[in-house]
Amino acid sequence: MAKRVAIVGAGVSGLASIRCCLEEGLEPTCFERSDDLGGLWRFTEHVEEGRASLYKSVVSNSCKEMSCYPDFPFPEDYPNYVPNSLFLEYLKMYADQFNLRKCIQFKTKVCSIKQHPDFAVSGQWDVITLHEGKQQSAVFDAVMVCTGFLTNPNLPLDSFP
């Protein structure tokens, strides 16, 4: 049975994590609190709580050759420094090319991640999520937190010696 991996966030890192898990024969489930993928690169007029925001005219500050996934270059006709709207389109193309959307649960907030009661033996995690007012709990063999570093830090120092 494939090991189950919870991935928090469907931005640049979350998408790459889904793909890597699939390539390794793992079973990824990505939880994305918003209604679409893209993370930071998805501009919204309204700033969403807990999500880093960018302004409408943001352009990547590294060239497209340095900003792309290694085996999935930006389209030739994209400018050297990619505007956020095209960067988002690129991420959607990546997700579609490798069929990653099937692993993403949109509008799903991760409420808590805790060690399973038998963590010392199993190494498993209890993940509690909230989707459309309904709370669900699931057990995963691993967790990847891909929420970026541009929002409020979470330092669970009391959880680690």
TrEMBL record:
InterPro entries named in the record: FAD/NAD-bd_sf, Flavin_mOase, Flavin_mOase-like, FMO-like
GO cellular component, one term: endoplasmic reticulum membrane
GO molecular function: flavin adenine dinucleotide binding; N,N-dimethylaniline monooxygenase activity; NADP binding
Major localization listed first in the record, in broad terms: endoplasmic reticulum
Keyword annotations of the record: Endoplasmic reticulum, FAD, Flavoprotein, Membrane, Microsome, Monooxygenase, NADP, Oxidoreductase, Transmembrane, Transmembrane helix
Subcellular location: Endoplasmic reticulum membrane; Microsome membrane
E.C. number: 1.-.-.-
Cofactor dependency: FAD
Protein family per UniProt: Belongs to the FMO family.
Protein name per the record: Flavin-containing monooxygenase
Phylogenetic classification of the source organism: Eukaryota, Metazoa, Chordata, Craniata, Vertebrata
Gene, per the UniProt record: LOC103194383
